[in-house]
Amino acid sequence: MKEEHLEPGWCPDCGKTPYDIKKGKFVCCSKCGRCKGIDTSEPLTEKERKLIMTHHTTEDGWNLNLHADEIDEDEYKNIKANTIDIGDNVEISDDVEIICDRLVIGEGTVITGGTKIMCKNCHIGKNNFINGAWIEAALNAGNTSIHIGNECLILQGARLNCNGKLVIGSDVNIGQNVEIWTHASSMDVFNGYPYVKSPVTIGNHVWITAGTTIMPGTTVGNHIIIGNKSIVNKDLPDGCFAAGAPVKIIKEKCFPKKLDFKNKEEILLDCITEYTKLLDYKPFNAILQQKANSLTIIMWAEDRGITYFDLENRCMHGDINECSEDFRDFLRYRGIKIFTGKPFKSIKPSWYTLATKKKGLFK
User: Which of 73, 110, 190, 290 is the most exposed place for a label (fewest CB within 10 A)?
Assistant: First the structure.
C-alpha cells in the first residue's frame, strides 16, 4: 500500500476514513476496507475533494465530514456554517437560509419554502421534507441544539425553538403552525415572572396536527396523534390519542393498530382505484394491478417498463422512471411511504401545466 502517494484527509475507498497524520496511517471507520490492507489507487474526483474532508466524531456524537471553506458555494450558497455534512440527493431551495456552527443533513432530505434555520448545532436526518418552517435559537442561549430523525414532515409556519435541546424522532409529522418551545422568558423575573428553559423530546411515529403548541420540558412518546390546536404541557405516553387545551389523553394504547391481510388489501385496491382516476390528468398512460395473493402493485407505464411496489415491505423494484416515481409520491400522499434515498417527485397534472402557461388576468 503506497500511502505516501495518498492525500492526507481523504480515503479513496469510502471518502470518510481519516488519514491520521501523527500516526502516519489510515484509521478504521468500519465503512471501508482501508484498515484491512485493501489498496485503492484511484484518485478522488474534483467534486469529491470539495465535498469530503477529515471525518471525525465529536464528543456529543456529531459526525462531520466537510469544513465550510470546502463547500461548493454555487450549490449551497444559502448555507453559512463552520462545519457541514451533507448527504447525497439533498435539495435546498434558494429561498432557504441556514446559519449554524455545525450542520448535518442526511441523504434525500428536501428543505424548501423559505425555511429559516439558526442555531449552534443542527442535525437533520435522512429523507425529511421541511417546507416553510422556522427553526431558531437565541444567540445568547449557549449550546443550542436540534436533532431531527429520519423520514419526518415539517410544514408551513411550524416554529421550533431550540434554546434548550430539542430532539425529534423519526417518522414525525409536524403540521402547519405548530410551535415547539424549549424556553420561555419575557417578563421581569425579579417581579416573580417565570424563566423556563427545559428540553423537549418527541418520539417516533408521532403526528402533531396543525396549530398545536408543545411547552418546555415535555416528552411525547411513540405512536401518538395530537389533535389540532392542543396545548401540550405534560408528558404523553406511547400509543395514545391526545387533544385539548390543556391536553388530555382521549384514548390510550390505540396506536399502532394491527391490520389483517384483508384490511391491507382494501387499502391497496383503493389506492389503485384512486390513482387510475388521477391518470386522466397525467401526461402518460399506465395500468395498475394487484399481484395475486400479495400486497404488491404492478405498474405498466407506456413504453417505460414494469415496476413492482411491495407495500408490505415498503420497497420497489423493476423499471424506475418518472412515472413510477409519480406513483411512489402518490403512495406517500396516501400514507404509504417508500424511501429510496431520493426525494419524492410527482408529474404535474395537465390542468396545472395549462394554468401556469397563462399570463394571468392582471398582466
Answer: 190
Domain of 283, in residue numbers: 261-352
pLDDT tens-digit series, residues 168-212: 999 999 999 999 999 988 899 999 999 999 999 999 999 999 999
Asked whether residue 360 is assigned to any structural domain, the reply reads: no
Domain count across the chain: 3
Q: Which three cell numbers stand for residue 47?
A: 467534486
Alpha carbon 267 to chain centroid distance? Answer: 25
Bridge-based pairing of strands 196-197 and 183-184 is: antiparallel
Angle between helices 322-333 and 261-278 (to 10 degrees): 120
Helices (H), the chain: 46-51, 261-278, 322-333, 350-357
Final residue in a domain of this structure, among 251, 273, 294: 251
State whether 24 and 144 are in the same domain: no
The strand pair at 315-318 and 241-243 is best described as: unpaired
CA neighbours closer than 13 Å in the CB half-sphere of residue 152:
30
d(CA 304, CA 78): 37
Contacting residues for 1 by C-beta, under 8 A, at least 6 apart: 37, 39
The x, y and z cell numbers of residue 360, run together, are: 394571468
Q: What is the CATH number of the domain that holds 92?
A: 2.160.10.10
Residue 359 lies in a domain: no
pTM of the model: 0.79
329 occurs within a structural domain: yes
